[in-house]
Write a structure and sequence with these properties.
Main location: membrane
Oligomer: single chain
Structural class: mainly alpha
CATH topology: ABC transporter involved in vitamin B12 uptake, BtuC
Subcellular location: Cell membrane
Helix content: over 70%
Shape: globular
Number of domains: 1
Number of strands: 2
Largest sheet: 2 strands, antiparallel
Keywords: Cell inner membrane, Cell membrane, Membrane, Transmembrane, Transmembrane helix, Transport
GO molecular function, one term: transmembrane transporter activity
Order of helices and strands: HHHHHHHEEHHHHHHH
InterPro entries: ABC_transp_permease (IPR001851)
């Protein structure tokens, strides 16, 4: 039964990816007609290439946890906490006016420390979910507040600015004309795709999310798997925090507060089943593209208030999911009639 359910879900979400492709193509065509100058501007696409990586990287981590049947709402807290720690360490090791070599050393040490903190924070979530057996939504809501509180405590509630120029030039710069945040996002996406589709770890995630009981009887150490999954999500959040800090050129405890629900929106819109067991990286990437283009296009229509952005996001999610649900019901009803 588990394999049948998993196969059915996979076919369903393949159709969902096709719908996302059609929606994205229609959206691009519409904007090309209505706002040709804005849509075809190189500056527009370059700006989008800087804007979406931070939330996109967080969403990739959330995707991993949701495939197991869980969720991670603490990504923004982890990102800001690691950002505050990174900024504090860098400024302590390389005050303003420090030599370039000293700055690079400070950046390297601070970034490695931030990544380590992200892994530990994610592993804490995994431990509470897998070993203590607290529901993931409650754990990650709690740790979101915990990590945000730590960031507030370390920063005094203030923005930490004056970062070493070496940091912003490396993580906020460009390589061969391509924004560094975009390159980082592509690298993270490739790694996540390899883990999901080329390693046994990914197959175990789908098995656990599809049928936890079957996974248990197959000898799968689900607790250890969950700890590692949430640790990876924490690592993604830490990377996103580093990108976020480079984009803002500062660290603060409340940067990107809207990203908590936006990451969930991206993952669900991308076709990852909320109950776990299915979902593909391609779907999430398409969802990121759709929402980023929608977000940017709101600014092109001056008669539309920017606050309508999330209203539009919610409407898109409801339209895509409702269409998928209606198609599933129609297919089920047709199959039932054929069997009769």
């Amino acid at each position: 039964m588990a394999s049948v359910s998993f196969t059915a879900r996979s076919r369903h979400w393949d159709a969902h990816i096709l719908r996302l492709v059609v929606f994205l193509a229609a959206l691009c065509l519409l904007l090309l007609v209505l706002k040709t100058r804005d849509f075809t501007s190189f500056r527009t696409w370059q700006t989008m290439g800087v804007q979406f990586p931070e939330v996109g990287i967080m969403a990739l981590g959330v995707m991993l946890t949701m495939i197991t049947g869980g969720i991670d709402l603490s990504s923004v807290g982890v990102a800001n906490m690691t950002g505050v720690v990174t900024a504090t360490v860098m400024l302590a090791m390389a005050p303003r006016g420090a030599a370039a070599g000293q700055q690079l050393t400070a950046v390297l040490v601070a970034v490695l420390l931030a990544l380590l903190i992200g892994v530990v924070a994610g592993a804490l979530n995994g431990f509470l979910v897998a070993v203590v057996r607290i529901p993931a939504i409650l754990v990650t809501l709690g740790t979101l507040e915990l990590f945000t509180g730590i960031a507030v405590l370390l920063s005094g509630g203030e923005s930490i600015s004056g970062l070493p120029p070496a940091y912003t030039s490396v993580l906020g710069g460009r390589i061969a004309g391509i924004p560094t945040p975009l390159i980082i996002f592509v690298v993270v996406a490739l790694i996540v795709g390899f883990v999901l589709h080329k390693m046994s770890f990914g197959a175990k995630l789908y098995l656990l999310g599809s049928n936890a009981t079957a996974a248990k009887f197959s000898g799968l150490n689900s607790a250890w798997l969950l700890v590692r999954t949430y640790a990876l999500s924490g690592l993604c959040a830490a990377v996103a925090g580093l990108v976020l800090m480079a984009n803002y050129n500062s660290a603060k405890a409340d940067n990107g507060v809207s990203y908590t629900l936006l990451t969930v929106l991206i993952v669900v819109l991308g076709g990852v089943h909320p109950n776990g067991g299915s979902g593909k990286l391609l779907g999430v990437l398409l969802a990121i593209a759709i929402l980023q283009i929608l977000s940017s296009s709101v600014n092109w229509f001056h008669q539309i208030n920017g606050f309508y952005r999330f209203l539009i996001f919610g409407a898109v999610l409801l339209i895509v999911i409702s269409t998928a649900d209606l198609r599933s019901r129609f297919r089920f009803r047709r199959n039932s009639q054929e069997q009769q």
